[in-house]
Specification:
This protein has 215 residues and is of the alpha/beta class. The strands form 2 sheets. The chain has a 5-stranded parallel beta sheet, with helices on both faces. It has a 4-stranded parallel beta sheet with strand order 7-6-8-9, sandwiched between helices. Helix 7 packs across helix 8. The chain starts with 5 loop residues before the first strand and ends with a strand. The mean pLDDT is 90.
């Protein structure tokens, strides 16, 4: 590493969480005194990575978007910190940081339990995603410890996953079937927006009839 590290920060900026991560990196770089940063956002795609490499980056902090993106970073053969990277294998000088998805589910369950809810449901992603399954497992496991049952919304079919219009009637029936006062944990915010939209269409009041929590 040179006296003045030149670090490529390849993170999206569309979400508040990712902007907080960038703020944290910038704060750390200031504490170290002499870092140079090259920001690659979601709009820059592979071109931004190539520009960072030509700039002379000797370190990378990046979001693991896909296998091709990650392999491109590996080819640099420089120290790397990768967030949410699913590529198997770990080249030298590479650190992986993963979200504790089970703990996300556990935290959601405890949030509802602390507020006195007694009926619970989970709505995962339309297409089966490993992180969504693990959030569900953490949610269900914590509620089982509290001797509570969870209604889990069935996985969407491939056609439904591609077209919410096909899935919506089934989700409406699921939401209508839940008892009054049910606490619904939804795998992520965009999916939660769809749940809230259907509640509005059905005249289901939130949070009085159903409470909805996204991530």
């Amino acid at each position: 590493m040179s006296a003045s590290p030149k670090v490529c920060v390849a993170l999206p900026t569309s979400k508040h969480l990712h902007r907080q991560m960038i703020e944290g990196i910038v704060g750390y770089a200031r504490e170290r005194g002499s870092w140079q940063l090259f920001l690659v956002t979601e709009d820059d795609s592979g071109l931004g990575l190539r520009q960072a490499r030509n700039w002379g980056a000797n370190g990378v902090i990046a979001f693991g978007r896909n296998a091709d993106w990650t392999r491109e970073i590996f080819r640099w053969k420089v120290p790397a910190v990768l967030f949410n990277c699913d590529l198997r294998g770990q080249p030298p000088r590479t650190v992986y940081l993963r979200r504790d998805q089970e703990n996300v589910g556990k935290t959601a369950a405890e949030y509802f339990l602390e507020r006195g809810y007694a009926s619970f449901a989970f709505v995962g992603t339309a297409a089966r995603e490993d992180w969504s399954v693990r959030r569900c497992e953490g949610f269900v496991r914590r509620l089982k410890r509290a001797k509570r049952e969870v209604s889990v919304y069935p996985q969407a079919t491939r056609r439904e996953a591609e077209d919410f219009g096909l899935e919506a009637p089934r989700m409406r029936r699921f939401l209508e079937s839940l008892p009054n006062g049910t606490a619904v944990f939804v795998a992520h915010d965009r999916r939660a927006q769809l749940v809230l939209g259907l509640c509005m269409e059905l005249g289901i009041t939130v949070p009085e009839r159903l409470a909805v929590l996204g991530v």
